[in-house]
Structures are given as C-alpha cells and as structure tokens.
Amino acid sequence: MRSLPPLSALKVFEAIARTGSVTAAARELHRTHGAVSRQLRLLQEHAGAPLFDKQGNGLRVNEHGAALQALIQPLFDQLEAGYAGIVQRARHPGLHVACSASFAMRCLVPRLGDFYRQRPDIRIRLSMTSARELRGEGADLLIAWDLATYPQADRAAAIPLAPVAFGPVHAPRYRARGAARVRIAHDFTTSAWTQWQALSGLDLKLGRELAFPHTHLCIEAAVSGLGVALAEQRLVRKELDDGTLVAPHGFTRFPDGLMALPGPGGADGPQARAFIAWLRQALGGEPGQGGGQA
C-alpha cells in the first residue's frame, strides 16, 4: 500500500505554492476558501511539518514546501500533458503530427496519398504552425530540423528522419549587385544563414534583409525577384525543376537533419512507428551538393 497524501491535497498545495495565496488557489480550483484551507491543514498534518510561511497577505513555501513543490511540479506538468494527450486521442483518433506549414504544404501533404494507400487504417491529423510555435501542440510527433531552442531532453529523444541540405536560391533574372542584393530570412530560424555560411565557406555579401514568418513566403519572395532565400532542397524542388528558381551554389548538407520529436504519448505505438518508417522512406535519398546554375 502506497504511503501518499490524498491527490486532492497535493493539488491544493500545488495551486497555493504557485499562486502564493489560499484565496487565489480556491478561485482557480473552484473551491471555497475553507475547503482549500482544510486540505492544506490535512496535508501539513500528514507531512508532520508546516509547508508555508506567511508573507504579507499571502503565503510563501518554506524549506519543506519548496522541496515538495520541486518534487510534484514536474509530475503535475507531466500528468497534465499526458492526460491531455489521452483525451485528445480519444476524441480525435489517429496520429497527431505537428510540423511547419511550409513542410506540410510542400513536402508532407503531397506524399500522404501514398501513405494512405499503404496504411488506410491510420488517420493523420496535422497541426501546421510557424517554426516558433512548434513546441507543444499536444502532438504525438513533432517534425522539425532546427532543435537549437528545445530542451536537451527533447533533443536526446529526437528520432532521425532524413538529412537536410540548404542552399541560396533566387529568380533566374535576379542580378542585383553589392549592397543592393537582398537576403531573404526566416523570422524564427535565423541561424540557418549563419550555419550555411560556416558550412559552405561562402559569403555572398548580401545587403539589407527581408524577413518572413514562413519558409513558403521566403520562397515565394525569391520567385518574385525580391532577393536571395536560403531553402531546403526538397522544399524548392518544383521551382528548380520548372526554372522559376536557380541554386547557383548548390546545396550544403546540415549536420543534424530532419527529426521527429515524440510527444507526451511517445513514439512507441504501432501507428507512430509505421508513420516514421514510411516518412523515412518517402524522404529518402541524400540531399546532394549539386544544384541549378544561374
């Protein structure tokens, strides 16, 4: 038999520790002030020690309370995220995949017909967001290449999908020189140009900068002749093939590649494993160094 205090008392403690007030905790939990106070008293009796000190009109965790808060806060966060995932999957069965809107439009959705032919029993539900907003989403899998801002634990759990290669692209007739040459940048993956320059050893000496929140918009700006965009090879394949963009310096492979980050439900389920295996095959092939010439 587990020797644990009631979950309701721990929930009350967590709310008081976070808000610093019995009144605020009662309001958040939709309980009366007296009911919350009783739960706190029961918890302190169970622990055999006070957990808070008075601070003005509120409460502040003491040494024992701080230790308990550090113990249960991540557990509550994990429980909340995990339960949300269970509810989401129960209400919307299938595999929830989050990715950037540009990757979804240009790479994933055009290939989904093949996946459904192979696995008609699995329904994919997409969340398409900007790169900055990809963290979270409650997805089973999150697909991204730039994981620099993610916690180390997330990066360690990432599942390799495919290599990526980036290169500068522009419209065939874009001939601006010197400071007039415009660099088209992505608002939320600002390190891409820096990485490409370091890996390729090239400095295009571009002048002013235009920034957009989606890779798709960066590519469209380059097609329109507004400047030079840095794009992943797969995302501009159509434009390279039809001649609306050229890649005079080819494409340089980035070290980490495209990754799948497991969500709260993990990536061990049969649907997630099937999708990851298919996506690896669909994205197969090494992005090379070659490219169109201006």
Describe this structure in words.
The structure is a single chain. The chain is of the alpha/beta class and 294 residues long. It folds into three domains: 7-90, Arc Repressor Mutant, subunit A; 96-162 and 256-282, Periplasmic binding protein-like II (D-Maltodextrin-Binding Protein, domain 2, 3-Layer(aba) Sandwich), CATH 3.40.190.10; 164-254, 3-Layer(aba) Sandwich (D-Maltodextrin-Binding Protein, domain 2). 43% of the residues lie in helices and 20% in strands. It contains ten helices and ten strands. It has helices at 7-19, 22-29, 33-47, 63-91, 101-118, 152-157, 191-200, 215-223, 237-242, 270-282; strands at residues 52-55, 58-61, 95-100, 124-129, 141-144, 159-169, 183-186, 209-212, 228-232, 252-262. The strands form two sheets. The protein has an eight-stranded mixed beta sheet. Strands 1-2 form a two-stranded antiparallel ribbon. Strand 3, helix 5 (101-118) and strand 4 form a beta-alpha-beta unit. The protein is elongated and about 75 Å long. The N and C termini lie far apart (73 Å). The relative contact order is 0.13. Mean pLDDT is 87; it is low at 286-294.
Short description:
By secondary structure, this protein is α/β, with parallel strands linked by helices.
Topology:
Elements: H1 7-19, H2 22-29, H3 33-47, E1 52-55, E2 58-61, H4 63-91, E3 95-100, H5 101-118, E4 124-129, E5 141-144, H6 152-157, E6 159-169, E7 183-186, H7 191-200, E8 209-212, H8 215-223, E9 228-232, H9 237-242, E10 252-262, H10 270-282
Parallel strand pairs: 3-4, 3-5, 7-8, 7-9
Antiparallel strand pairs: 1-2, 5-10, 6-9, 6-10
